[in-house]
Design goal:
By secondary structure, the chain is mainly beta. The chain has helices spanning about 15-25, 50, 405-410; strands at about 35-40, 45, 55-60, 65, 75-80, 85-90, 95-100, 105-110, 130-135, 145-150, 175-185, 190-200, 210-220, 225-235, 250-255, 265-270, 305-315, 325-335, 340-345, 365-370, 385-390, 415, 420-430, 430-440, 470, 480-485, 500, 505-510, 510-515, 525, 550-555.
């Protein structure tokens, strides 16, 4: 009987790696494409309602609200000085959850923030709203990290920066950039070291749509060439000076450095060479004919487009299996909620080649994590699935012990993944940090069945010409009531939208009908029933957890 580690469900060993190694040697395939699968129920690591530090607030629409809400990819590092692991999801005010390891997190530490955002209100400083990302900690306690920076002109209160006073649909007045931070005390605190590190080659433009370079993912050291590699999400608009004339760009590109503390030693891949550089446009204006020199090439990730890409390095016993990939990259599919996908390096992006991490094979199967979340608490698509990150709790310990300085640094930075204590961390609607235990399986192996399979969809729908919909049975305050069609003349082919009041709408988005505060959140209910222009009558909640929510047509 095959056994695998079920974490909270059972205490068996992750995989019989000796059997896997034998199977790998017996196969004629040059490369194994292992399967990633959940093996246990999701658990809540952080709940904003219960765990956020008291008294830490920010002002939104004239109200004081908690400033501590998970707002970025959950990341971790291990402090070799104090012997503590830190877990954060950076936000307006970031406080860590700490413990001797990630399996034994002991407290949410409200005494000190690891990195305090500068929050400058001027676009040319590149020291605005900031999120600590991509940490790299060395065994001596020093380290560096990338900082995601955003300037929000719409929130500045200065009409010279933006004509709007709130977020718009296309993100007008928002500009991303990436800064550099350092630590000298094992990551207990980080300080801004250089800004900007990576940015658009033109100054901020009033009322321009969202654009820039947003940091994400892990910093990877490549022993084959001695460089540190990292990914950055980038987008730019046509003829705004943000990229070459008559071009638009989106996607993720790769940059590298041999000396991470030297801001002038960072170079991006331009499609053929590591020659893309970045410069402060307020100090060094770039003529249109040279914009291409400061614009990196998006990586090749096959046909399956995903965002929030995050590569990790295999370590431990799995990395010794013949044919096993060297790295894996996870991502968030752009069209399917509660799913993640993953990639292995393509031949053109192998670490021993000229362009490491720039090309990845077509994505492997997608994991439906909602089927591993209790539908009575955090499952049933009640919350938006965000910012996935594959983290192995053994990274600073078994996966890197007795290794080189670089191996130890990989471990301390939680960039190594194995197969005995592997979790997929994510954020749910900026309310929770959750983690799902996962494991690697050989191709063809049977993977565990989910404990909460998606219910069979209902075929009962409302008439297409309905102008009023009555919502009943909702246990969330304010959701029940009569929702009225916003316009009886919706464009042909577009689903209608119904409104109860300013914070409660019923609408179709990314393949699902939703009851939510449109474009703002939160999401109250998501129908798992028939997809299409007709509004489902039921399927809005899991009947195993509460009386059914129903949406029925009421004609004028």
């Amino acid at each position: 009987m095959r056994t695998y580690c079920m974490h909270a469900i059972c205490n068996n060993v992750a995989l019989l790696l000796s059997v896997m190694s034998f199977l790998a040697r017996e196969t004629e395939c040059a490369t194994i494409k292992p399967l990633l699968a959940p093996i246990g129920v999701a658990e809540i690591v952080f709940n904003k309602t219960k765990d956020a530090c008291p008294g830490k607030t920010k002002v939104i629409d004239g109200r004081n609200v908690s400033c501590e809400e998970p707002d970025s990819m959950p990341i971790a590092w291990h402090d070799p000085v104090q012997g503590l692991s830190y877990l954060i999801s950076a936000t307006s005010c970031t406080y860590p959850t700490v413990g001797p390891n990630l399996s034994a997190l002991q407290r949410h530490d409200c005494t000190q923030t690891p990195y305090k955002a500068i929050n400058d209100s001027r676009p040319w400083t590149y020291e605005n709203r900031q999120w600590l990302q991509s940490t790299r900690v060395f065994p001596n306690g020093t380290g560096f990290a990338m900082v995601h920076n955003e300037f929000h002109g719409e929130l500045s209160g200065n009409i010279s920066y933006c004509s709007f006073d709130r977020k718009t649909a296309d993100g007008k007045c928002i500009e991303w950039s990436t800064d550099l931070a350092t630590t000298v005390n094992g990551g207990a605190t980080w300080q801004l070291y250089h800004a900007p590190l990576i940015t658009l080659p033109r100054p901020y433009i009033k009322d321009a749509g969202i654009a820039g370079y947003g940091e994400l993912g892990s910093v990877l050291y490549n022993p084959a060439d001695g460089y540190y590699y990292c990914h950055v999400s980038r987008t730019y608009r046509n003829n705004t000076g943000a990229g070459p004339p008559d071009t638009v760009g989106s996607g993720t590109c790769v940059f590298r450095t041999h000396d991470p503390y030297n801001a002038s030693d960072y170079y991006g891949w331009n499609g053929t060479h590591w020659s893309t550089t970045w410069t402060n446009p307020y100090l060094n204006p770039t003529p249109p004919q040279d914009l291409w020199k400061h614009t990196c090439q998006a990586i090749d990730q096959g046909l399956t487009r995903a965002t929030h890409l995050n590569p990790k390095k295999f370590g431990g016993s799995v990395s010794t299996i013949p044919g096993w990939p060297s790295h894996v990259m996870t991502g968030l599919p752009v069209t399917i909620e509660s799913n993640i996908t993953y990639y292995f390096p393509a031949a053109d992006g192998e670490v021993t080649g000229d362009a490491p991490f720039t090309a990845w094979e077509e994505a492997q199967q997608q994991l439906n994590l909602d089927e591993w979340m209790d539908p009575c608490t955090i499952g049933a698509n009640k919350y938006t699935f965000m910012y996935p990150n594959l983290i192995d709790h053994s990274s600073p310990f078994d996966l890197s012990k007795d290794g080189s300085i670089h191996d130890q640094t990989d471990g301390l930075s939680y960039t190594l993944v194995g197969n005995q204590s592997l979790y997929l961390y994510a954020v749910l609607s900026r309310q929770f940090i959750v983690r799902v235990p996962v494991a690697w399986f050989q191709p063809g192996e049977v993977t565990p069945n989910p404990p909460f399979p998606t219910p069979t969809p209902s075929s009962v729908v409302n008439p297409l010409n309905c102008s009023r919909l009555l919502v009943k049975g909702a246990e969330i305050d304010g959701v029940n009531g009569m929702y009225v069609l916003e316009s009886k003349h919706s464009p042909v082919g577009e689903p209608p939208k119904y409104t109860l009041d300013t914070t409660h709408q019923l609408y179709y988005f990314q393949g699902h009908w939703k009851l939510a505060h449109f474009a703002v959140g939160p999401t109250y209910y998501v129908a798992q029933a028939v997809k299409g222009l007709a509004v489902p009558v039921n399927g809005w909640n899991d009947p195993r957890c509460a009386p059914p929510v129903t949406v029925t047509c009421t004609f004028d």
